[in-house]
Amino acid sequence: MSGTPETDDIARGNHVVPVEWAEQLERERDEAREHFRDIAEYGTEEINAAVELRQKLATALLERDEARERYATEATEHMLSINRICNERDEAVEEGRRLTAILDLIKKEAQ
Predict the structure, then answer these.
(1) What pLDDT, on a 0 to 100 scale, did the predictor assign at position 92?
(2) Average per-residue pLDDT in the chain?
(3) What is the tens place of the pLDDT at every residue in 13-31?
(4) CA 105 from chain center: how many Å?
(5) 74 membership: H or E segment, kind and range
């Protein structure tokens, strides 16, 4: 068997090109088809891998943005708490000063 069944079928009838040349062309065509199948399969795998990678990247970016938003919210809440505590401290210090002043007046009147 020559490995060129189409050319062998033609060779049994009338033909206008040498059989050896037609067989060579058929073999080259079949090799090219196989090569392109391999490329298409490889290309499909690469495309699928790229799509999967893009989906992972999109997920990672979304998670990053959500984390940034959570961080910003938490940071704002912490700053508000710190401001509240500082205000309470300042009010307590001022109340302490008033009480000290009142105590000093009471001590003066008691003398």
Answers:
(1) 96
(2) 87
(3) 655 667 787 788 889 999 9
(4) 70
(5) helix 19-110
Model pTM above 0.85? no
Tell me which long-range contacts 17-20 makes (C-beta under 8 A, separation of at least 24). Answer: none
Do residues 15 and 36 touch, judged by C-beta distance below 8 A? no
Tokens of 2: 């020559």
Place of tokens 């309470």: 88
Q: Residue 6 in contact with residue 27, Cβ under 8 Å?
A: no
The two tokens of residue 94 are: 């001022």
Question: CB–CB of 22/4 below 8 Å?
Answer: yes
User: Rounded to an integer, what distance in angstroms lies between the CA atom of residue 98 and that of residue 101?
Assistant: 5
Q: What type of residue sits at position 69?
A: E
Phi, psi torsion values for 14, nearest 5 degrees: -85, 140
